[in-house]
Amino acid sequence: MKTGQHVFPFEQGDKSMKSLLGGKGANLAEMARIGLPVPPGFTVTTEACNQYLRQGGGLWPELKGEIIENLNLLEQQTSRNFGGEQPLLLSVRSGAVISMPGMMDTVLNLGLNEKATESLAVETGNRRFALDCYRRFIQMFGDVVLKVGHYSFENVLTEIRQRKKVKTDAELNEADLEQVVKDFLDLVHEETGNEFPTDPQEQLFFAIEAVFKSWNTDRAVVYRKANRIPDDLGTAVNVQAMVFGNLGADSGTGVAFTRDPSTGERKLYGEYLLNAQGEDVVAGIRTPKPLEGLKKDLPAVYSRFIEICDILENHYRDMQDIEFTIERGKLYMLQTRTGKRTTSAALRVAVDMVKEELITKQEAIKRIEPHQLEHLMHWRIDPDAKKDIIASGLPASPGAASGKVIFDADRAEETAQAGEKVLLVRPETTPDDISGIIAAEGVLTSRGGMTSHAAVVARGMGKPCVCGCDELKIELGKGRFYIAGVEYSEGEVLSIDGSTGQVILGETSLIEPQFSDEFHELLGWADEIRRLKVRANADNPEDSRLALEMGAQGIGLCRTEHMFMAAERVPVVQKMILSSELKEREAALDELLPMQQSDFKGILKEMVGKPVTIRLLDPPLHEFLPDRENLLVEVDRLQREGGDAEKLAFKEELLQKVRNLSEFNPMLGHRGCRLGLVYPEIYRMQVRAIFMAVFELLEEGFPPDQLKPEIMIPLVGHRGEMEMMKQLVDNEAAAVFKEQGRQLSYLVGTMIELPRACLVADQLAESASFFSFGTNDLTQTTLGYSRDDSEGKFLPFYLQQKILKENPFAEIDREGVGRLVEIAIEKGRLTRPDIKLGICGEHGGDPSSIEFFHAAGLEYVSCSPYRIPIARLAAARASLYQIEY
Amino acid sequence: MKTGQHVFPFEQGDKSMKSLLGGKGANLAEMARIGLPVPPGFTVTTEACNQYLRQGGGLWPELKGEIIENLNLLEQQTSRNFGGEQPLLLSVRSGAVISMPGMMDTVLNLGLNEKATESLAVETGNRRFALDCYRRFIQMFGDVVLKVGHYSFENVLTEIRQRKKVKTDAELNEADLEQVVKDFLDLVHEETGNEFPTDPQEQLFFAIEAVFKSWNTDRAVVYRKANRIPDDLGTAVNVQAMVFGNLGADSGTGVAFTRDPSTGERKLYGEYLLNAQGEDVVAGIRTPKPLEGLKKDLPAVYSRFIEICDILENHYRDMQDIEFTIERGKLYMLQTRTGKRTTSAALRVAVDMVKEELITKQEAIKRIEPHQLEHLMHWRIDPDAKKDIIASGLPASPGAASGKVIFDADRAEETAQAGEKVLLVRPETTPDDISGIIAAEGVLTSRGGMTSHAAVVARGMGKPCVCGCDELKIELGKGRFYIAGVEYSEGEVLSIDGSTGQVILGETSLIEPQFSDEFHELLGWADEIRRLKVRANADNPEDSRLALEMGAQGIGLCRTEHMFMAAERVPVVQKMILSSELKEREAALDELLPMQQSDFKGILKEMVGKPVTIRLLDPPLHEFLPDRENLLVEVDRLQREGGDAEKLAFKEELLQKVRNLSEFNPMLGHRGCRLGLVYPEIYRMQVRAIFMAVFELLEEGFPPDQLKPEIMIPLVGHRGEMEMMKQLVDNEAAAVFKEQGRQLSYLVGTMIELPRACLVADQLAESASFFSFGTNDLTQTTLGYSRDDSEGKFLPFYLQQKILKENPFAEIDREGVGRLVEIAIEKGRLTRPDIKLGICGEHGGDPSSIEFFHAAGLEYVSCSPYRIPIARLAAARASLYQIEY
């Protein structure tokens, strides 16, 4: 490579030179280098493009000189003459480093003018072919280089077809094409004010400049911004001798994948057309034939093609997407690149290639983006089913579901218990609706966004959810709703697709998620590689079982409040909360104890041998009470209408208590360990329930070292909180052990979810044996964002304005929240070098966040069961990429 | 000082040995050392006490030896014999390093038994006196050493007085006293089971042990805990030869302050009694005479006393509180210590002593605790006025006020405008009530605590406030309230004392706050010393003027939202908020522009020459809308009762908008710059109003370099927010400058009130010229405490349990919030070494927090006008103490 060299013949390049030659150019050079049949050509580099753009346009003499030099070389290689006898025709194609729509694509047959066309006619013995090439060239060049509207050319063709009463251009004869050429040249003159350039060299320079300029079209700029592609990459230009697939029955063109891109099966998959150019395939006038047909049509070409596909796959060590042309029985490769594929195919290809010893397990893991696995994890709508889509909202939690529309959590529960499928439909959901969400197949709301309560809870439970469906108007009190003006009644059956946001009328047939052998195999390899453990956020035995199936190594977050939400428990919980005396409250807690105990027993039994982190009660107590607004209206009505004085008195008192407990900012209110400190009897009951559950299991014969409760104190911010809570747990444990006459081992730790907790982590670690980062709340406090509010208000705007690169509730904010996590780790280890560290916020299931947690040195991440496979893969990739840095 | 020496004769000590000899002992030694007449004695050290307590009791032989040795010395010095002829009598007093109630105080006349009493009788020629000494000794020793109940002795005396038909003990004759002594000895035997100890040495050892043990009485332990006095200080014991003030008309006892402790005036202030012991003064049977009387009674003693007072003041360089006894014409000093005084007196003494060249200005400043100044800052209830106290609540904001009870903000405003004084009385207040609080003289609420909305806002405005008055039951709708079952109507006149929490029926006469010359003089010295500047939080010209009077050097926080709250503006603000289209909103903003402009003009004019930091709109928009609950009930009524369909439709729409804007956690919601980004037109209007105001002032002839607006962007957490907001301000500024044909200088900076802002302060400093720490919100987010909620719920419990040492909203949490402040300063200076740094949270007026901000290197603190003097003094003290560290 010469200094300042801006043009490279294919022989001088290779696949490592992508950033200089673009993807297409580098691969053409590579194919030429390894001896595959590639029509000769050269590439003008991305650096030339950048220099061109920097200096504000104009090809400079040195660059022109280099191009002409390479053109001469090309004439020698092909024994043809650019613009002369046996004319050399060129294709000119853009080729960016990262493939990008919106840029100039291709000009074919460049180099033709009247004289060259006649030479071509003589040479091929086919004047119609030559004229057709010429009119195609004028049309493409006129369109993409001279910016004469595409439709103007089409109008000319339409007119002549109508005049000649034919349907396709192929039916036009020589004379017709002569007329077309003339009309095209006139059209260009008329629209641009200039004659169509007849000097081939001038044509080439024009085309190269056009490619350069196309880097900065509006569409290209927008696309780069949206996809965060740097603006200074530039595009290369590939100039290549034309080969013709339309020179008769022994010519043709086609595309192929070396494996099936939808299943990954190892068999060639592609199509071809004889006597056609690439654009004919695209135009869709003739239907291409499956690739196997070529075996019969042109056996020698077919077997050579098979051979080349093998070479390419072995060479590139990945499934290839190939374009080829056959000119009079000779095969030419026009492009090869890594083939796009479905997630299933990607898994199969990767696993197969490991078995074929083409790639290593590590490479296989790097080839699957963790996010891709999401597609496999959910029920889907049968793609072949008929769908009556009546509205659409935000795709808030993936998967599909059908069910009877129910507006109310209690009725949703009843209906589900009666064996019917339910879709919970509400303007928005609140913690009051949890039992309804649990009972429902899916959730549909008219308000709220991707991080609304409904969305967050549904994602946590792996239930499909469509949110913020504006077209849906619900009249809760009247039992009806409207979509696009049409009235429906509660009880109507709808389906939702939480992956697309579609709302569908009636029941739809669904496809169950299925996991292939390759899926399990690849994740098995990931397990060998990763250092981070993966636990599950699960609150009941069913979820625990699911989590185990997904590969969980324990439970990282068991939220005990969800256990309080079941319909039959709510009255007891409310009794407990509304107690004005300790005795009364303790009596209610005594009722709750066996319920909690049986919950814990179920979970611990599923997780025998694995650690189970149980978080003591966290939400503010008012979340368990009746809705304040409903109560207010009820009281007002009773007051005004008179009548049942006793009921009024009761409701007034209830309202008063709801008011006393209600908070301006419940997120920052009386919750977490603040509850445990003020109402220690609640936490004592929970601790007792945990240990009693363990003793029950011991009696059933489970070995004590296989039951590993880790008791987690939420929302700790001060040393004293942790000390007092640790003491409470230890005291209650000691009491139970004494009653049972036997000691158990257990851990007490804390959730780290406040900035202050991070800053004084050294103090907390004095009494906490583990930290589990609650990154949901830590994000809320560090950024000052209420998760329940921000989505509908400023978050979408922030993302759109790029103030935020990502939703911080989905991907961890490394500079803010991440920095606090690092501080906490460092400080925690100062006091307790072996402190156990994990994370149980929703970020535990996000690949980018997992990369961060791996680097930060955590022991485990915990996420909802359906994200465990993603986390396993992401953790493995984090290990692999970290080693390479 | 010998190694292991545990007993020091007065001659060996001095005032620097307080921690070893206790306060009293060190001062006795000091007085002896400088030649003042102190009865000889010795001190058993605090170390002896600690060793005694460590080893669980028992005086050890070496210690006993030292005591006996010193006793022998004392016999020589006094030429008296302990327990013999011319008996040596002792006083034994405790003397801790920090004076502490709850510990054993004093035993007098120790050393008496039957034999010594008779010797004393012979020596003094006054057997009645000797017997009286003996019975006093038995009584005191019995009470404080032997723990025989005080009342048992009193009963004996009462009985004999009744029998003898006399009123006082002084009327008992020799025989009576002989009987009393006998009865006392029997009583001790009866109650303790032992004979009263007659061996003087034994008496002394008993007494010393009793003092040691009293260090750990329950009361003493509780007191130390409450006052954070370390438990390992221990107490010393002072053993001193008795002198007698009750040996006739040339004997006496008294106390004196070297200056007037209530005004600080430089004149001796004290009282004395002739022929009396100290306890007689305390008992209050005889009325002591003003000290001047001594001049006539005992002129030589008097002039000697004057002389000694001068010596002591000059020696200690502070006002002294002195105890003395005169024994047969000879003056003895029994104690001297720094005298307690009122705030006014403290100021006067300090300033006078500087003028007398007794102390330096620096010392004067160290002598005034900043908190003391609070007492001077408020209207007080005339202490001589009659008060009918009918209830009491929390003293939430100091000062006193009287006014008509009004339940509603709007009516409060109307009533005040009609010229009547108003007391806003509500169950609790919300931001809706701001205009009412502004209009009212003071605020009284039945709910909420020291950090409730009412309390915080009232403190900010310097209005008196009593919160959480449980006894007050308000029936808002019925225009009446109840206190202790008595019904009152709205309109009743009440008074409140926000310094004590008292609620008083009717109007009360009030005393205006007045600032003495000394107040101004001392603060002037503070201004010379302090490095920290002090600015004010002020939102209108009146407050600005007040702030200047208080010594503000600028405005650190002008909250523009308070300007939106005035009654005539609220409709325009609501129109702006409820606009569904930009045009509509801009029209409403056009109406607001001249109002804001005139607000800013007024403030900037007051503050000419000083910087004014104006914060752009901060609170969520729903704070300006009608109350959601009221609206809900109204809509429900209209819906059920039918009737005015148009009104219903309007209210329904309004409710819908209120609902759309309402938030689960408004503190973490759509506020601050999040508003400015989504509705840039609001901020643009405000910026325009600021600069237009400056141009108006320029036209009035004010010089441009004297008008210094600093525009502050609230709630920034991300670099992009600051960049975009800076751009908005600069653009609008440029537009106004272009219209006006003239440039102005200004600053743009941000409030730092989110943990994330601290962690990325380097990024924010790229576009922010200043940081002002909003420590209120930073405390809320760092600790995860909602200020509006935590007070009534867990905060009092946390303080009581010592999980929190201080209310973090009053005194900055150094480990959490403070650490973030330090991080932000460090990072901000990385990018912009000369970045302007201040703090405008309420902590800006708290002395301990100011000390922290000084050390952290801020340029200024900003606080409410009434706290400025406190801040000025605290800042000076921070400078002084930092230098000394």
Explain the overall architecture.
The structure is a homodimer of 885-residue chains. With 885 residues, chain A is an alpha/beta fold. In chain A, 46% of the residues lie in helices and 17% in strands. Chain A contains 34 helices and 31 strands. In chain A, the strands form six sheets. In chain A, strands 12-22-21-14-15-16-17-13 form an eight-stranded mixed sheet. An eight-stranded parallel β-barrel of chain A has the order 24-25-26-27-28-29-30-31, surrounded by six helices. In chain A, helix 4 (114-124) runs antiparallel to helix 5 (127-145) and helix 20 runs antiparallel to helix 21 (582-606). The longest helix of chain A is centred in the last third of the chain and has 25 residues, at 582-606. The interface between A and B is large, with 55 and 55 residues.
Report the C-alpha radius of gyration of chain A, rounded: 34 Å
Sheet-strand content of chain A, in percent, reads: 15-25%
Q: What percentage of residues of chain A falls in helices of 4 or more residues?
A: 40-55%
Low-confidence stretches of chain A: none
Tell me the number of strands of chain A: 31
Mean pLDDT of chain A: 92
Pairing-aware structural class of the strands and helices of chain A? alpha/beta
Oligomeric state of this protein: homodimer
Helical run tally of chain A = 34
Most extensive chain interface and residues per partner: A-B, 55 and 55 residues
How would you describe this structure in keywords?
elongated; homodimer; eight-stranded mixed beta sheet; alpha/beta; 885 residues
